Amino acid sequence: MFSLRTCFCVLHFVLLLVSTLASEKGTSFQLQEHDVPMPFDVINVKSTDNSENHKKWNGRYLPDRSHEENYGSISRIVTENEDFAVVEPVYIVPEQKKSIVTMGSMDINSTCDDGKTNLTRDWDGSFYNYTCMLSDTLPISDIQPLLDRDLVPKYYVANHVCMKESISYNHDIPSFGSHRPAWARYGEYKFLPKQRWLHNLEHGSVVMLYHPCTHPVLVQRMRTVLKSCLFRHIITPYNLVPEDRPIVLVTWGNRLYMNDVDTKLAIDYIKKYANHAKETTARDGQYDNLLIEPAELISPDDINICPTPHKRKNRI
């Protein structure tokens, strides 16, 4: 028979082995989902049967609020794939329309916006927006990636705002909203204001934002992936990117926050959400202030997004 001391040692060894195996399994990264409280007015939506046809649009962004039946075709939406699930529980009311004409009826010109005039309206040129002010480089370890999705109203039309008026947003990293008529040329910038790249999002592009203190190796990894995926991309530092997840990929209505560069996750996100916006035009923009490197064509009209690895350029 084993002595009591021998049994105690064996039990202690088994517990230590189980604890070690559990800690090793806990290091894998999984994408978190997050329903961000939006500062817009929201309408709580009653879940209904989606089988009925959508009611015909009456020419307004949203139906009349006074008739509850008008919300019959709006329901709780859950979008899933193998990497993440996104829950969209509310309908966001679009911002109030200003006394400005909407896109499609305004030419790009010096009177309104030519991408060259009165640029300090959006950005005063301060180096603070693209310069690291921290003593250490980011990221902080062991933080999961996070996917945010804004439910953009089906008939929402973003305003084009002339340079004589300022544009403010209720989110540090907006994924839709009013913007300038002249969108940015695609490529990498020393700094690009959000009033410009929001218009690029509307054309189906992917915007890579990174905190100025992000480690250069991580920036280069994400830059390489994005540049090899599609022509319609924007890369710019931005000091309002969260320090705990210093790299963000933004598409129309979506944001993917990352603490580290997960190549598979990033490519899956780009393939799913790029080129899915209100206006999917591949035409290059007019604004090019502080453009460092123009984007290169990957495939005509970005038909083939994120080609196979052996076809990509600038691999690491």
Topology, element by element:
Elements: H1 4-25, E1 32-33, E2 42-44, E3 77-80, E4 85-88, E5 90-92, E6 146-149, E7 187-189, H2 194-202, E8 206-210, H3 216-227, E9 233-237, E10 247-251, E11 254-258, H4 263-273, E12 291-294
Parallel strand pairs: 1-6, 7-9, 8-9
Antiparallel strand pairs: 2-5, 3-4, 6-11, 7-12, 8-10, 10-11
Helix pairs in contact: 3-4
Signal peptide: 1-22
InterPro entries: DUF3105
Pfam family, one: DUF3105
What labels describe this entry?
two-stranded antiparallel ribbon, 17% helix, elongated, Tumor protein p53-inducible protein 13
Describe the structure.
The protein has a domain at 94-311. It is built from four helices and twelve strands; from the N terminus they run H-E-E-E-E-E-E-E-H-E-H-E-E-E-H-E. The chain has helices at 4-25, 194-202, 216-227, 263-273; strands at 32-33, 42-44, 77-80, 85-88, 90-92, 146-149, 187-189, 206-210, 233-237, 247-251, 254-258, 291-294. The strands form three sheets. The protein has an eight-stranded mixed beta sheet. A two-stranded antiparallel sheet has the order 2-5. It has a two-stranded antiparallel sheet with strand order 3-4. Residues 22-28 and 37-105 have low confidence and may be disordered. InterPro entries: DUF3105. Keywords: Signal.
